[in-house]
């Protein structure tokens, strides 16, 4: 059996086909999340945002698991894990954490270039 041809990852120009693909893929990712949760005995939650910009409606979001108390339990567990540092355990980061860390490093680097370190100042006055 020959290998399947690769699809290019581009926006699907036909709106009807795009919506159909979205529905199919959303159903598939929910199934994968359920399987991952059951087979590996782990907590999994998903947040999917669907924007219908052409009709001017607000962004719609869906969550998995559908039970809001279960979703909130998993999400609060995730938020709490960001604040706890356990040796040997990887911390959870999101895009804003990464951006803020990079921004802080950039500011620190600029500050070091502008002002000599405290040790250098002490050496000047000795």
UniProtKB/TrEMBL annotation:
GO molecular function: DNA-binding transcription factor activity, RNA polymerase II-specific; protein dimerization activity; RNA polymerase II cis-regulatory region sequence-specific DNA binding
GO CC, alphabetical: nucleus
Signal peptide: none
MADS-box domain location: 2-54
Keywords: DNA-binding, Nucleus, Transcription, Transcription regulation
Main location as per UniProt: nucleus
Protein name listed in UniProt: MADS-box domain-containing protein
UniProt-listed Gene3D superfamilies: Transcription factor, MADS-box
Pfam families assigned: SRF-TF
InterPro entries: TF_MADSbox (IPR002100), TF_MADSbox_sf (IPR036879)
GO biological process, alphabetically ordered: positive regulation of DNA-templated transcription
Species: Prunus dulcis (Almond)
Cross-referenced SUPFAM superfamilies: SRF-like
Subcellular location: Nucleus
UniProt keyword Membrane, yes or no: no
Cross-referenced PANTHER family: MADS BOX PROTEIN, MYOCYTE-SPECIFIC ENHANCER FACTOR 2
């Amino acid at each position: 059996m020959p290998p399947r041809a690769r699809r290019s990852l581009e926006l699907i120009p036909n709106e009807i086909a795009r919506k159909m693909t979205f529905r199919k893929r959303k159903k598939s990712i929910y199934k994968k999340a359920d399987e991952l949760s059951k087979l590996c005995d782990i907590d999994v939650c998903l947040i999917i945002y669907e924007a219908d910009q052409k009709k001017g409606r607000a962004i719609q979001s869906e969550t998995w698991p559908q039970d809001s108390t279960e979703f909130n339990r998993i999400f609060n567990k995730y938020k709490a894990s960001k604040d706890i540092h356990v040796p040997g355990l990887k911390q959870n980061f999101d895009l804003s954490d990464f951006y803020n860390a990079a921004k802080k490093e950039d500011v620190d680097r600029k500050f070091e270039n502008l002002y000599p370190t405290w040790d250098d100042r002490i050496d000047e006055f000795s």
